[in-house]
Write a structure and sequence with these properties.
Blueprint lengths: L16 H14 L12 H8 L3 H13 L3 E2 L7 E2 L42 H14 L14 H15 L8 E4 L2 H12 L9 E6 L3 H9 L3 E8 L2 E2 L11 E4 L13 H14 L2 E5 L24 E6 L11 E4 L5 H11 L5 H12 L2 H28 L3 E3 L7 E6 L6 H9 L6 E2 L11 E5 L5 H17 L5
Parallel strand pairs: 4-5, 4-7, 7-8, 8-9
Antiparallel strand pairs: 1-2, 3-10, 5-6, 9-10, 11-12, 12-14, 13-14
Length: about 475
């Protein structure tokens, strides 16, 4: 066992002591300094040695256990978990050389996925920030400089994702864009080369986000599905030419909701580094976690700069703001900003400046805390209601986070497209999960929970059950 006395002193001026303990241990484990099976110091011993509260160490250990770095059993010592892959190492990959299928579905009904509840939007605080910035923009801000984004907003975003998601980068690596789709399109335009043999291959989670599939197809991508299971994408099951880009949603897989295991994360990063691929990490709604704290981003453990991290304010604040961001490997910054200038994929300066103030004042985090409580209640009510009324037809997901819930037909021959259309004709807007597959599909329904008030969930689920009972679900 490593003595707690050998750990370096914490930086008390920067705060987040729990995060510092977590990162110290995580980094030593990832780089082989704490081998599998090694006992870790007890929480009491570590707390005394570092001069922090025991609860600080307990919380750090719990994060490490939740993310798969540590393992423990009742009555046994806590030890470093075993990984079948080698610790992360190596240099950054070399720089890359310099009509979509879309299925339309009803919108605006009950259980529509991907749509946040904007009724609780903090209008007053946002109006004050927006008005103040509209009146006081500097001459410098009104020119053509800062194509990648206002420096204040880049810093505010980086401060937020570093603290909440474990992202490690510099402000100049943050690029502000109008949407997640714009970010995907920019990265694809830089990384894909359809005229070169193998230059347009993209490995995609299966099932996966339909909009990402469509955007990548528009960029000329040859999409190769890679299966996901209870541990996330299984990169070992990818086939064909090595990809230029790998699209994943590791913290909250779309649409299944699973979290990629640490073993799979390490395997994915090593594969990308060895093959010169970029991993596009779409962190679309992982700010909302109900059973535990958010899992750290894949980007934070990327020692080879192979991950481009994408986040959005569409789910956390409102889609109408049209603000998202990408944190890109440093070697791609120049190319991404050049592509951004050509495409005009920019966000108005006064919106960027106001959002920077909104975040700096702590209003964004306060809004997240408020909405996380609301969404947690709605998710729990939806899961309970669907289990109670629709359990004979559907296997309902756990609902541990996010704004949508996957439910799978027990009858693997169910025609979920026809069922979804029947249900949606009665005031709903559910989505068939089979539409999210590139290859053979598993039938299911994807339901949004953000606007489903807890007290209304039971009646909505009962209505769906009556519709399922009245119509055959087999294809």
């Amino acid at each position: 066992m490593v003595s707690a006395a050998r750990w370096p002193a914490l930086d008390r001026t920067s705060g987040d002591l729990e995060g510092q303990v977590y990162r110290l241990m995580r980094d030593r484990i990832l780089h082989g300094q704490m081998p599998a099976g090694q006992r870790v110091p007890s929480t009491r011993t570590m707390a005394v040695s570092l001069g922090v509260a025991r609860s600080t160490v307990v919380n750090a250990y719990e994060r490490l256990k939740a993310e798969g770095y540590l393992q423990s059993a009742t009555g046994a010592a806590t030890r470093v978990a075993a990984f079948p892959t080698a610790p992360l190492s190596g240099q950054a990959a070399a720089p890359p050389p310099n009509l979509p299928r879309v299925t339309e579905f009803k919108t605006g009904g009950l259980f529509e996925p991907g749509v946040p509840d904007v009724s609780a939007f903090p209008h007053g605080a946002w109006a004050r920030c927006l008005g103040a910035r509209a009146r006081s923009l500097r001459v410098h801000d009104l020119g053509y400089s800062d194509h990648g984004g206002v420096h204040e907003l880049r810093e505010a975003i980086l401060d937020h994702v570093a603290a909440t998601r474990g992202v490690v980068a510099r402000p100049e690596q943050v690029v502000i864009v109008p949407s997640t789709g714009a970010a995907i399109g920019l990265l694809a335009s830089v990384l894909l080369h359809p005229g070169d043999p193998g230059g347009n291959v993209v490995w995609m989670e299966e099932p996966g986000y339909a909009s990402a599939q469509a955007i990548l197809r528009m960029a000329g991508a040859e999409l190769v599905p890679v299966p996901c299971d209870a541990e996330g994408i299984d990169i070992a099951r990818g086939a064909g030419p090595a990809p230029k880009l790998i699209y994943v949603t590791p913290s909250h897989q779309y649409p299944t909701g699973v979290t990629m295991s640490l073993t799979r994360r390490l395997a994915l990063l090593e594969f990308a580094r060895a093959n010169g691929a970029i991993v596009l990490e779409d962190d679309y709604d992982s700010e909302f976690q109900y059973a535990s704290r958010p899992i750290a981003a894949l980007q934070g453990i990327d020692s080879g700069e192979v991950v481009a991290y994408i986040g959005t304010f569409s789910k956390t604040l409102a889609p109408g703001l049209r603000v998202a961001y990408a944190v890109v490997p440093s070697r791609l910054v120049t190319a991404i900003e050049a592509a951004q200038r050509l495409r005009g994929a920019v966000v108005p300066i006064h919106i960027q400046a106001a959002l920077a103030d909104f975040m700096r004042e702590g209003r964004f985090r306060a809004h997240l805390r408020h909405m996380n409580g609301i969404y947690a209640e709605r998710m729990a009510a939806t899961v309970s209601a669907l289990d109670r009324h629709c359990g004979a037809w559907l296997e309902v997901g756990g609902g541990g986070g996010g704004l949508q819930l996957a439910s799978w037909f027990r009858d693997v021959g169910a025609g979920d497209l026809a069922v979804a259309r029947t249900i949606n004709a009665h005031g709903f807007a559910v989505r068939p999960i089979s539409a999210l597959y590139l290859g053979p599909a598993r039938p299911g329904l994807l339901l949004g929970i953000a606007r489903m008030e807890a007290q209304a969930a039971d009646a909505a689920a009962a209505k769906i059950a009556r519709l399922l009972a009245a119509a055959p679900v087999s294809a």
